[in-house]
Amino acid sequence: MYLKELELKGFKSFPEKTDIVFKNGITAIVGPNGSGKSNISDAVRWVLGEQSIKSLRGDKLEDVIFAGSDKKKPMNYCEVSLTIDNSDGEIDIEFTELTIKRRAYRNGESQFFLNGKPCRLKDIKELFLDTGIGKDSYSIIEQGKVDEILSNNPGVRRKVFDEACGIAKYRYKKQEAERNLKNTSENLERINDIYIEIE
Ligand code: ATP
Domain of life, per the record (predicted)? Predict the structure, then answer.
């Protein structure tokens, strides 16, 4: 599995459609200060479902959308597509290649697509659990992240190890099952109340 391609349109400092193709191996992105290098890694985290605007170095939701320049008008929406080569089947999906796309509008509306089909953020999150790729995983180490991991409490550090050794998925599924159980027992209680009223 490897990151094959990243396509940006209207994302931060990339108003034009910009296609970045990665070869299998190491790729370094170099450029002067402020040229948009970090915006590229922000785009990767954003398309993987990052919801925290602060961690994308913005103040409000629309800060990910191109805000305009001397020569160009602001854009109304942005979209990022990330293509992953999955020919080794490391991601549990039938496709040898998968493309995730996220689109967002200034009014806050946001959409996700998986291989062209609309999907939920939850689907993206579950797909990448335990692969090391998710938005919270260790595959993206931004500035200050190492310090943050080292200085955080043991619970936060453990999350990193859980993801690395494949436990995160089960923890997530357990939490989801507990949530469903709670909802179901609340529904049962409600039904019982109605039943008693009718009797
Ligand atoms: P450094 O080497 O200093 O870390 P960098 O190459 O990582 O810099 P970035 O932080 O990725 O640069 O890009 C910063 C640039 O992106 C700034 O010029 C900023 O104005 C521009 N930028 C950020 N958000 C937007 C936006 N929504 N619309 C237009 N431009 C934006």
Answer: Bacteria
Decide if 74 is inside a domain: yes
**136 lies in a domain?**
no
Residue 86 lies in a domain: yes
**What is the C-alpha radius of gyration for the chain, rounded to an integer number of angstroms?**
20
The per-residue pLDDT for 78 is 97
Which of 9, 16, 30, 35 most suits a substitution to test ligand 1, by most atoms within 8 Å of the C-beta? 35
Predicted TM-score (pTM) of the model is 0.81
- Residue whose CA lies nearest to ligand 1 atom number 26: 12
In ligand 1, the atom with minimum distance to the C-alpha of 42 is 11
* Number of independent structural domains in the chain: 1
pLDDT at site 136 = 63
The whole-number pLDDT of residue 135 equals 63
Q: Looking only at Cα atoms, what is the longest distance across the chain?
A: 76
Taking all residues of the chain, what is their mean pLDDT, rounded to a whole number? 89
Residues 121-144, mean pLDDT to the nearest whole number: 77
Q: Is the CB of 63 under 6 A from ligand 1?
A: yes
* Ligand 1 contact via 13 beta carbon (within 6 Å): yes
CB 61 within 8 A of CB 44: no
CATH number for the domain harbouring residue 58? 3.40.50.300
Contact 76, 109 (CB under 8 A): no
Confidence tier at 67 by pLDDT (50, 70, 90): very high
Predicted confidence at residue 179, as pLDDT, reads: 95
Query: Is 192 inside any structural domain?
Result: no
Stated as kind and residue range, the H or E segment containing 61 is none
**Does 51 contact ligand 1 (Cβ within 6 A)?**
no
Helix (H, G, I), strand (E, B) or coil at 154: helix
